[in-house]
């Protein structure tokens, strides 16, 4: 006979839902692995008390009862497998696999038996139905009546929510059969009641999913999250796994709790509870229990008084109460030395942690993928840029996860990790050339990257050379339209060199010299207004009062040095982050002091602005007056210049009349004596000379005589 029996596509009944998986029977015991959650139920052979074979809806089923009262149900067997199972139980477990069929008479009157975790309703010796008491969420009593309420099953289309039992009164004194029935149910039911004090309380913990800050109260059988808006009660039996993951910045820690079934908020389901801690936060914790009780219950895993980092205390308490191992990252290290990889999943950026037995992505949405459910992985080129790549995972159920925007420096480390875990890589078998390139990429990451960059640079140089060749052959018009100023200078230099080489006349050289400065003057004229515009844009009044600082900035300036001393070597960005956290955590009373200072500064600023605006208005008024005065003076000077021009014309008209008899003189000619005498006369009395009429012909005749 074989030492082991394996069955695929076996269904385990847990809280009203049928979870498929694989069942293995061996000499050591019975192992069932859930395909959906990966949870493993291990029943030792020495713990088995009874085995029952019966007909159920999905063919035939196996019910196992243990010595401590636990019941395990597995369905999906074929009728022909009974003999094989019966012989195996006799040989290895020394148990008879009993055949018991359910009663199908349809009667509703019978006897209730409580055995371990089961409530069995029997008619005679045959069971009609069985209720796992762990499915019961509430038990209420009435007159001769007991009502059982059940947890809702999200996976089932139809769920049984309530069952009522009528309990007839008995003649025995001092014993109430209804209360006795209810106590038997409540002793085994999964009823969450916050009776008594919590073992310990963690205040104001930052929770990423569900988002917010929550007080976490630790009770013996469940976890209570108390927030401003929502409350959640999480039984420890629903906790699948615990993860403790370091953040990439090495200053924070993620504590992840995997839940099945998930907690509900409306239509939203949260399969993961993610807490974020700072490594610098410390706490001193005192458990609300006697030292003897702590020692008896936790067996040295916890003590009454503990102190240390906050994340260590929370993870240590959860590990002791849930009785599960905490999963931490293995020996994987990325290109930057961190134990995670920065990437994007769907629309959000997060961190992907390669673990010893799977991958976990935090935090929006959280994803946990086990190695045993992965069909293959794929390394794909990034869709937007060659500086990154995508990492695709497809499960055996056909679900695909794509983690994009991973830096290409992480490729070698991730490929080696996947290869070491013996995961199936899809693009390894596509082409032989692709296989060789991937191997070289994984072996020498840096060299491969350099070669790729050099190739890209060479292609860029070829494109530039082609572009230059096409621009040279396109003619001078494109150059002129591109930069006409530089083209004018080039033309002028060519013109001068040709002129020096040729034997041209001096007149030609002078003409060419005249052309050159004219072009330069034109360039200067074009540039002048641009400079003025730039100067006008940059202009700012240095005398204007400075804006007041906010309350946060006043507090930051006062505490900047203290933060630096508390965190030596902190960078500027980290300093501002830390300051923001301290300011958020500050109480309202302390903030009011800085807000008063900010308010005083604002008032002083408004007062200074009023004075400044009044002064600037007065200055502008004076400036307008001076401008008007200057304009008036310029007008007067212009009028005087026009009058001077009129007198000079009259004097020039005199001069040809005097010398008409002697010799002819042009209008432009004015003698030095006449000009000097005219200037002296103008200096003595400009206004009189301008107002007097021109001399008559008699005066000119007497002057000539």
From TrEMBL:
User: Where DNA binds (residue ranges)?
Assistant: 545-613
Biological process GO annotation list?
DNA repair; DNA replication; regulation of chromatin organization
Fetch the CDD domains from UniProt: HMG-box_SSRP1-like (cd21994), PH1_SSRP1-like (cd13230), PH2_SSRP1-like (cd13231)
| PROSITE patterns found in the cross-reference section | HMG_BOX_2 (PS50118)
GO CC terms, sorted: FACT complex; nucleolus
Query: Region labeled Disordered — which residues?
Result: 458-551, 610-705
The record's subcellular location field reads: Nucleus, Nucleolus; Nucleus; Chromosome
Under InterPro entries, the record lists: HMG_box_dom, HMG_box_dom_sf, PH-like_dom_sf, RTT106/SPT16-like_middle_dom, RTT106/SSRP1_HistChap/FACT, SSRP1-like_PH1, SSRP1/POB3, SSRP1/POB3_N
Mark out the compositionally biased spans (Basic residues).
517-531, 624-633
Biased composition annotated in UniProt, kind: Acidic residues: 474-496
Residue ranges annotated for the HMG box domain, each copy included? 545-613
Instruction: For this UniProt record, give its keywords in alphabetical order, as a comma-separated list.
Output: Chromosome, DNA damage, DNA repair, DNA replication, DNA-binding, Nucleus, RNA-binding, Transcription, Transcription regulation
Quick one: where is this thing mainly located? nucleus
Provide ranges: composition bias, Low complexity. Answer: 497-507, 647-663
Q: Where is the composition biased (Basic and acidic residues)?
A: 532-544, 634-645
* Gene Ontology molecular function: any one: RNA binding
Family to which this protein belongs: Belongs to the SSRP1 family.
- Role: Component of the FACT complex, a general chromatin factor that acts to reorganize nucleosomes. The FACT complex is involved in multiple processes that require DNA as a template such as mRNA elongation, DNA replication and DNA repair. During transcription elongation the FACT complex acts as a histone chaperone that both destabilizes and restores nucleosomal structure.
What PANTHER family does this protein map onto?
FACT COMPLEX SUBUNIT SSRP1
UniProt-recorded name of the protein: FACT complex subunit SSRP1
Species this protein is from: Pachyramphus minor
- Species lineage: Eukaryota, Metazoa, Chordata, Craniata, Vertebrata
